[in-house]
Amino acid sequence: MAQRFRGFFPVVVDVETGGFDQNKDALLEIGALIMNMDESGHIEIADKYACHVEPFEGSNMDPKSMEVNGIDPWHPFRMAKPEDVAVRELFRWVGKAMKQAGCTRAIMVGHNTPMDLNFINAAAVRNKLARNPFHPFSTFDTVSLCGLAYGQTVLSRAAQSAGLDWDSEQAHSALYDATRTAELFCAIVNAWRDGVGPVWS
Q1: Active-site residue among 52, 75, 135, 172?
Q2: What CA dihedral angle connects 98, 95, 113 and 117, to 10 degrees?
């Protein structure tokens, strides 16, 4: 894995939020997955992290966004964690796996990745978390990769084009969307490895 992506450790991340402004809107869910590489150079999902997050004090939650994600931030059984705890746990989990893989920096993989990265970076700054393992701006975005591989840029359509199941009832859950994104990323990287495109060496 360390050689495949020039020392970067890919981590698929999806967040659910109270809007589109990372500095004002609440971070409400985090879903993340890491991958292993087998002896033939194929990658597969290895582990996952999922957490419900308490809205930070004074944060905004746009009604339109809340209608889409269906989250009730004050549900008594939500078992949400404070934002600083949730993001710190994510960073420690990523950091440990990154070191085990012999990589020097994590790189975020996602569908429309800039939003996910912006919210994670903003939460790190807001909570004074110095050890952010993610590259501050470089990402792998499956929007572009799926457009190249399948001619689709919408996550649900790309997943279906790749032969993956898609459950609209579970969509907009951070872990569900992250899982489908990880499956797409693995499928594209493995197809490239098998000769659909130039094979990395």
Answers
A1: 172
A2: -160
